[in-house]
Amino acid sequence: MASYIRAISSEWLKISGPGVWIQLILSPVLALLVGMFNRDPGELNPWHIIVGSMAGVHALLFLPILTGVLSAMVCRYEHMGGGWKQLLVAPVSRIAVYCAKFSVVILLLAAAQLLFLAAIFGAGWYHEVNQPMPWDMLMTSLLGGWVACMPLAALQLAVSTAWSSFAAPLALNIIFTVPNILIVNSVTFGPYYPWAQPLLAMIPSEQDAFGAFVVPLQTLMGVILGGLVIFFVIGLLYFQRKEV
Length: 244
Hints:
Blueprint: H1 2-15, H2 18-37, H3 46-79, H4 83-88, H5 94-126, H6 135-162, H7 167-177, H8 180-183, H9 197-202, H10 217-240
Helix pairs in contact: 1-5, 2-3, 2-5, 3-5, 3-6, 3-7, 5-6, 6-10
């Protein structure tokens, strides 16, 4: 546990800076603009309409891309100037190092979700929504989207540790994110496509559903957790055998 805490502190020092916060703020700001300038939500479930419209921007494209960016950023330092050799010969286990990198990524994704929550409040204030906030729906959406990013983070972290290029994992992530526009509507492929899972988990269930949006949340979470275990174990096994 002590080595894991030291590894987390080290990873945080390497990634902390204005650059990472700009990455985190970008998606919530764009989602806020969509929520503000979208049509007035009216009286029927205004919070559901606001969250649904904003999640369509945040979780469809930017959140999967952000996951890939953060996963590449936590490995960028080691790919420069023989950083892996210096890190892996240090008195800390490889398991602790890999788990620390993954933990930093998901903690930053949690921060992005909190910023998205602030954007939702901003859109509600702009539209002068007076109805009580449906916290059950909101927490399910935010936590569901966060958990749905975890298998994608595990997959991207595995790719980022294997590829020395910073741009290559990002390009691959973007290539697989763009088809979300079509795949999220597929009952057959949508729930099993890691890049589409954040949106499927964040769309309020009360929204008019079609395609993959009709998949029960319990089923979707089962698929997500299964993918997380598979991708994380594969990445960890590769990292333990990685040559320095």
